[in-house]
Request: fold
Amino acid sequence: MTVGRRKLVAAVYLNYRGFAFVIFKDGLNLFNWGVVEVRGSEKREKILARIERLMPSDLRTLVLQMMSPVEVHRPERIRQLNDAIAELAKRSGFEVVFLARREMQARFSHLTRTTRRAIAAAIVKEVPAFARYLPKTNKAWKSEAARMAIFDAAALAFGFLNVQANG
Reply:
């Protein structure tokens, strides 16, 4: 009997605190996830080192947000870090996929609104393990909960799997 290689797909979403990641195996079976906050000096190097340690050796694909200057308004530091993560993944032999927001939103086109909150709620329906991490609706004067980034990473993975399934 031959055991097939599991199909691991990871997605990383960067934010100003650090990053969030999800890893799915064989479709939408949750393998690992988390939010990593990085403080202090040499933040870029610390983030790259943490991501390198988190990625399993049998990972097939790493999904990152496409950050073209026209499409996405993200700080230059985040854009450069996104590119550095892609280079790290390529050197490790992983396929790197950049997913545009519209491609991710296509996966959730059945929703009446494709806000971050609505997408997060839809993800919870498909991956119940995330239910306890869904923050309450944010008040306008409060900063967003760091764990909301898990849903951004999961949305990237969902979008990639949708593109892959629909060719």
Summary: The chain has a mean pLDDT of 89.
